[in-house]
Design brief:
- The structure is a single chain.
- The protein is built from 14 helices and two strands, in the order H-H-H-E-E-H-H-H-H-H-H-H-H-H-H-H.
- It is mainly α.
- The protein folds into two domains: 238 residues, no CATH class; 105 residues, no CATH class.
- A two-stranded antiparallel sheet has the order 1-2.
- Helix 5 runs antiparallel to helix 6.
- The two termini are 17 Å apart.
- The N terminus is likely disordered.
Length: 359
């Protein structure tokens, strides 16, 4: 096939840059909210992706990468369907990758782990046929499939959310996410990249959120108590406003100033409740108002719009990461086997990677 006219030095640099972008390719969801479209748009995005990479890095590189991304994302789609989770089609974004979106959140971390595991597992399987084909034909395309496949799927197994590795190990203690952050920082040092930096920021945010679950649960429970107290007041015909307090400080040091931050969170919720109380007080003396029915409607509104979402958040935080020790060990061992298989394959084909990507 015809290749773009690029000198060898430029081609080598472009391919290395392309690999860096491709490393991030399979999981980053930067532009996903803009791509809620039909399957036809998914196909068009794949063609666009193919042509952009084809004219930039060469057609062998483009077809190999698209093949690997289809297999990887297809693995997620298969796993999601097995768990009864609806998904969007895969969308291809040049210099970012291919992404799918779950239309429903997994019910627990074990399900999330299963769906995440499908991508790199099928990714590994997609590499295997290329090994004998390359050594039989010495065709560059099959060499690229092996080289890129090892790099992409192994990179995706770094234990850092939003990468697959972080989602697979989400059922385990968050110390593994901390290890993933350290690995990504090393990667960023040797391969500076805005997208890699963005992944680290997402990973740190997710890690902090995970280790702050106890505090989040406290906040949610206090908010629920506040709304339940308001409902009791309404039932007895009491519509007193909660006292306001000015908070000049808006940032509090995590762990050390949690009590003060909790007070601020509750203050914000009281402000919202005061707005509801004022709206009730403004109508309570209307002569034609069915007072009891109106109060009952307000109480149901509070239960439905305020308390119910908080209860759902509470249940998620309390149960999402809960699983048996046996299941945790199964997931961890499966992760180690998959990562080791890709690492050994990558080590075995190291010379091939240097040969193909170094051209």
């Amino acid at each position: 096939m015809a290749q773009p006219i690029i000198n060898s030095k430029t081609k080598k640099s472009l391919i290395r840059i392309g690999v860096v972008f491709a490393l991030i390719a399979t999981k980053l969801k930067l532009i996903l909210p803009l791509l809620k479209a039909a399957k036809f748009l998914s196909f068009l995005s794949m063609l666009l992706y193919l042509f952009v990479y084809g004219f930039t890095f060469g057609w062998y590189f483009a077809f190999a990468l698209v093949y690997l991304l289809i297999c990887h994302e297809g693995g997620h789609l298969i796993a999601a369907k097995q768990k009864g989770l609806p998904t969007s089609p895969a969308f291809f974004i040049p210099f970012v990758g291919a992404v799918i979106s779950l239309k429903e959140m997994p019910k627990d971390a074990v399900t999330e782990s299963y769906v995440a595991f499908g991508g790199p597992l099928v990714g590994l399987i997609s590499i295997l046929p290329a090994i004998p084909l390359y050594y039989y034909t010495h065709n560059e395309f099959f060499g690229l499939v092996i080289a890129l496949g090892c790099i992409l799927n192994l990179f995706n197994l770094i234990p850092l959310s939003p990468l697959d590795g972080g989602r697979i190990l989400s059922v385990l203690p968050p110390i593994f996410w901390f290890i993933g952050i350290m690995i990504m920082l090393v990667f960023l040092f040797y391969q500076p990249s805005f997208i890699a930096f963005y992944i680290i920021i997402l990973g740190i945010t997710t890690f902090i959120k995970r280790i702050r679950e106890a505090y989040q649960l406290t906040v949610i429970k206090e908010k629920i108590k506040l709304y339940e107290h308001t409902i009791k007041q309404f039932q007895f015909g009491i519509f007193n406003l909660y006292s306001d307090r000015n908070f000049n400080k808006r940032f509090f040091i995590p762990f050390f100033e949690d009590k003060k931050k909790l007070e601020l969170e509750i203050h914000k919720e009281r402000y919202e409740i005061n707005y509801i109380i004022r709206s009730v007080r403004s109508r309570i003396n209307e002569p034609d108002l069915d007072w009891r029915n109106y109060i009952d409607e307000k109480i149901e509104e509070i239960r439905h719009k305020r308390i119910a979402p908080l209860v759902k958040q509470q249940e998620t935080l309390e149960t999402y990461y809960v699983s048996s020790n046996r299941k945790k060990w199964q997931i961890f061992i499966a992760y180690i086997i998959l990562a080791s298989s890709l690492a050994l394959l990558g080590f075995w084909s190291y010379g091939l990677i240097e040969h193909v990507l170094g051209k």
